[in-house]
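Dear U.,

Please find below the material for section 3 of the report. The protein was modelled together with magnesium ion; I have listed the sequence and SMILES used, followed by the predicted complex structure.
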Amino acid sequence: MANNSQKGSRRLARPDSSHVGDSQSRLEEELELWCSPRMRELRRTIEVISRVDVTVLVSGETGTGKDLVAQSIHYLSPRCTRPFIKVSCVALPRDLLESELFGHEPGAFVGAHELQIGKLELANSGTIFLDEIGGLHPDLQGKLLHVLQDGQFSRVGGRSTLKVDVRILAATNQDLERSVAAGTFREDLFYRLNVIHVDVPPLRDRPEEIPALAQYFVRRNCEIFQRPAFVLSPETLQRLAQHRYAGNVRELENIIKRMVVLDDQRVAGNAFSGPAQARPPALQGATSPAPISLKEVGRRAAQDAERAAILQMLDRTRWNRLRAAKLLNISYRALLYKMKDAGIGLDQPARLVSNEPLNAHGETDPQASFE
Ligand SMILES: Nc1ncnc2c1ncn2[C@@H]1O[C@H](COP(=O)(O)OP(=O)(O)OP(=O)(O)O)[C@@H](O)[C@H]1O
Ligand SMILES: [Mg+2]
């Protein structure tokens, strides 16, 4: 297995190929882009753990590919023909999330007129992917622990105990051990989730993947936006390869998307030379002829972090700025101001950046990819 996996062109071994559709072949194509030694190793790990019904905790910085890891574990598992359901643990307030996950009985609370089947039940015999698990409300942490222990839970307002057969995958970009130490995450839940831990490295630790990723995103976005295909110039590729991506693969994807939409390879240059460069501030100071104050270093670092967070949220909400502002907990006006300040175009029409169906939270719904 180890030798075969080294070959970039090798297709992953699926338990059943009869249901392969567009999204699955896209997933396969994307996994081929994990060509660095660390990601090849990760692919081998995924192949092994996907066959065994164990809980997996996926960690990594934002935009590194944790969703992709979860999808591929499901897709390579014997459950691949069954549902794959993603739930964000931070997208909804506690009560709504409880209903979303566990369902509710009619009359469970004011306004609960009908029975709602929760995502856990919907995922029965398949996989549930609990994203941003570190943000799960403490009350729900206890309830989830029961599911992990014996597969049992009750709907909100329900008396009977239900049993489900689901594989649980969870992802976090927080240091959960630190959250345990800080008392914000249950230690027993952490150990139940952390049976297998997969850490996805940041893009800066696998720069050799950048050219292939960039070319893939060009191809894909040209298709989506029906633009003529183009070849990235050596200068552009060099700029892309040298950039330090605070937002990881998602940031690279967004840069290419802008490049395709605006039909302008200079976007790569502009993206890195605006007021909020992603190069480390200390490095910027080192190459600048003028001395740089510590205060300025801090200001630039904060700008970098803000820019990455805004881009990530815009991507998640498919450039729905109202919703992005809400999730970022700032006013719409403040978001527009910050976007301008960070050199992020204000005139990006939402339809240009959307090609996939949205779920109820305004996010891409990976469930759609597996149905
Ligand atoms: N190997 C890859 N090939 C193609 N696209 C990729 C690859 N890795 C990541 N991406 C793309 O980068 C973006 C971010 O990936 P993903 O959503 O899996 O990251 P994440 O770690 O879950 O991020 P977050 O912490 O913000 O949830 C997605 O649009 C995804 O399709
Ligand atoms: Mg994710």
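For the text of the report, you could mention the following: Residues 1-11, 15-20, 274-290, 349-371 have pLDDT under 50 and may be disordered.

Regards,
Y.
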